[in-house]
Amino acid sequence: MASHLQDAHLPSDTESDDSSDEHERTAAFLLLVLQQAALHQAQDRAAHRAYLTRHDLLPHPRRQTPFQQVLTGEVDRAYIATMGLDVKTFKRLLSAGFEVAWNTTPIPRSEVAPSSEPRPHQRSLDAAGGLGLLLYWLNSTMIDKTLSQLFALVPSTITRYREFALHLLLRTLQHIPEGRILWPKDDEFAQLRDLVVARHPLLNGAFGSVDGLNLPTATSSDERWQNAQYNGWLHGHFTSNVLVFSASGELIHAAINAPGSWHDARVASKVYEQLEIKTPEGFYLAADTAFPHNRRTLKSKIRTPLKSGARATQQELQFTDQLVSYRQSAEWGMRAIQGSFGRLRLPLDANDASARHLLLETIFRLHQIRVRLVGINQLKNVYEPIWTETKELKHVWRNLQTMLFPEIRRADRVAQFHYVVVDE
Fold first, then answer.
1. 3-class DSSP assignment, residue 148
2. pLDDT tens-digit map of 305-320
3. Which pLDDT score is estimated for 344?
4. Which spans does this entry mark as compositional bias, Basic and acidic residues (predicted)?
5. What is the spatial distance between Cα 295 and Cα 272, in angstroms, rounded to a whole number?
6. Of 20, 100, 194, 276, which has the most beta carbons under 10 Å away?
7. Angle between helices 66-73 and 144-151 (to 10 degrees)
8. Dist CA 343 CA 25 (whole Å)
9. 343 burial class (0-12, 13-18, 19+ CB within 10 angstroms)?
């Protein structure tokens, strides 16, 4: 049988090139279609986004803005309502180091070297504007879009200036006497005790009150931190703090930025050290029953009310009534801080412990400024008037005040503990 031999037909070079060109044209067309679709999607998203640009705002951040109207008006009422400080105190912070730091420190930016020369005259805000922006933010729950309209700055600039000013303000507060957090020393214990005893005669030895402050915190993306910050008693995520207030309304110790799952007694470990080492016998803090004081060295340094149902003498009941009444002063102090600084009513950043610490320490030191310089202080209003009811007592109080609130206190060292803010 004859064999049939036949080779397969091979395309010519011309046919192969035509097929390749067709595939390339198809691929290019598909790529163009995809690019056009992506562009339309981006334009559609941009059309529905709500944001502010430079042209949406007033033209000059340093002139004729709502903030500049308040700033140049120099009315105490307006300053306190918007920034929490009166005119004199605002200028005190500027002159105490904030203005110099603002003008001599470059604003951190990714495209600018840290050692670069600062150019303060080219910034949208001067030092007063930077401080005002930060105080507006701290004393309110305003979002950046609202601040943009008040200061005539786009939100990205608002964020950058605010973070820059926050570091500068804390540095300023740490180095001026009015911003320090100091445990009493020597005769100051007796002076504070006298303020308490004038209103609560049975509390001979009480010089301050202590309480815990739990601040709402966002839920962390890290499961370990999420568990650490969850407070089972309050059924939410919190950052724990323990604050000690003297009878004059000042903070004398602040343990801050601890995980919300920690008990107040654990957060207050450094408070116990202050009581054991730096507090003379016969003086004590008023606290609630959440602060255990079973240690022998603490039994006389922390006094708590009788527990419900406990058997007690009439004198013990009277002592408890006065102790509960005085311990309320810690609640006043907490309310003064939370009521003044609206930023604390919003959840804190759960994933940045250093940012939380920076914010909290700045706010607690600003509280000292408000108490000492502005005079916004419910504790002082309750306990000091007893000393000023008569002409003779007014004279005594003026002399006592110079001892309690000296303008310049001894040089301090900022204690660097894990979460404690207290000056030595």
1. helix
2. 887 767 878 888 999 9
3. 95
4. 1-12
5. 10
6. 194
7. 60
8. 59
9. middle
Q: Supply the pLDDT for residue 55.
A: 85
- Which residues have a Cβ under 8 Å from the Cβ of 252 and sit 6 or more positions away? 181, 182, 183, 184, 208, 244, 245, 246, 422
The amino acid that residue 4 corresponds to is H
**Residue 413, pLDDT score:** 34
Cβ distance 300 to 320 under 8 Å?
no
In contact, 408 and 122? CB cutoff 8 Å: no
Say what the pLDDT of residue 424 is: 61
CA dist list (Å): 257 to 132, 218, 228, 275, 421: 26, 14, 12, 21, 10
What's the token pair of residue 348?
A: 């804190």
Stretch (H or E) spanning 420: strand 420-421
pTM beyond cutoff 0.70: yes
- Can you list the residues of the chain whose pLDDT is less than 70? 1-21, 40, 42-49, 292-294, 309, 376-424
